[in-house]
Amino acid sequence: MVIYYLLLFVPVLLSQYLLLTTTEVTTKRRLPLPRKVLVTTGLTLLFFILTFTLFPAIGAGLAVFVLNGLTILVIITGFHYRKMSYQNRFHLVISASLSVVLYYFATYLADILCFYLSFGAQSGKMFLALTGSGTALVQLGIVMLLKRKNPYKLLQQLVTNKVVEVLAVVVILLNLGTIAFSQDYLTDVLNLLVLRQVTPTLLSKLSSLALLILVNLFISGVLIGIASYLLFQIRQRKLQENIVLQQSFYIQNLEKMQQDMRTMRHDYKNILSGLVLQVQAGDMEGIKAFMESTVNQFDEQIGKNIQRTTHLSEVELIELKGLLLTKLAEMESLGIQCTLEILNPVNAIKMDTLDLLRCVGILVDNATEELATSLNKELKIVISQEEQDVSIMVKNSVKHRPLLQQIWQEGYSTKGENRGLGLFSYQRIVEKYPNVLKETRCDQGNFTQILKIRS
């Protein structure tokens, strides 16, 4: 009897564990093992309690709908969703819902296979054990597929527009509703298939089930098509905004260089007047030193703007270039002197674009906030790429040496209250990627952050 119940319990436990793993894969968030075991156990107990109590009382359809809702709630609670930003919360809910939909796809496939292999003649509990094992195997295949073709980036993009968010929610609810309402049809169809007899009742049930699935697929396809079109339009608009921003930045640099040249031309008369006495006295060394100083000053004024413009052209990732342009404009308005160096063309980074932008934005914002009240407003950004490995360094001066062991704690900040979330979020993002490393140094009055992304 113990072995019998173990055969019933273990496949369901494994299936719930893989359900949670699917959510981890699509959110790129890993739960600590003790917490994952706890949440998996909770999901398993919830499944058995509702299966043997709620299903007979209110029917399979409504019971499945309630079970799905509670399952999603348990999953998002296990991921500490209250501590997340709105974007990450929405992503988590959609990912958990998608995991449930994929779980039922695996369940249906396992049910059909078991009935086809004549396992339906077994007792109810034994059939649950067999289909549970089949479901776990199908889920394992789904997890492996998702690791190769992870929809993480697509799910992140859903939060870029309210209409797309609503469409995503409608598609998920539509599929969860279809799963719930198809339970009664599916149960009857599978029971009739055991008899292996084609009857009018079987044909009617099959037609109703097929119609329900086709309507769901059609509506879901239309909504997904609309959402895809909106996402494409949003991306195109952002691309054009980045192009306009880049052109504006180049024009501002050209205007500044032109103004510097006008100023220098206006000062030529005064400069030449200062040389008259030195020429009359035959002071060639003085003339040489004066001219070198003047030319160097001119080169420095014009060269900085040319250099920044040239370096930006080396960044081939439009999103990263747009972020750098925005940050450079912000720093210029704050009077911060930023030195930007791109050592090699940057064209490929093995990290999700949104996460990359968040990391770079946090590092630059952190440095900018520190320099806002500093007298020495100098910031240096260096980006280099060797083959597929990318390194991003942000260095700024600091008035007080920070406690390096505390800067990663949530809420820690030297800038006042209600701050200190940036570097905490930065660390959380980096921890999601095994190929991404962070390095922090503080020496000689400079605070340096280095983000290394390996291929």
From TrEMBL:
Transmembrane segments: 6-25, 37-55, 61-81, 93-119, 125-146, 166-186, 206-232
Start and end residues of each Sensor histidine kinase NatK-like C-terminal domain: 351-453
Membrane keyword on record: yes
One Gene Ontology MF term: identical protein binding
Keyword line: Membrane, Transmembrane, Transmembrane helix
Cited Pfam families: HATPase_c_5
PANTHER family: TWO-COMPONENT SENSOR HISTIDINE KINASE
Name this protein carries in UniProt: GHKL domain-containing protein
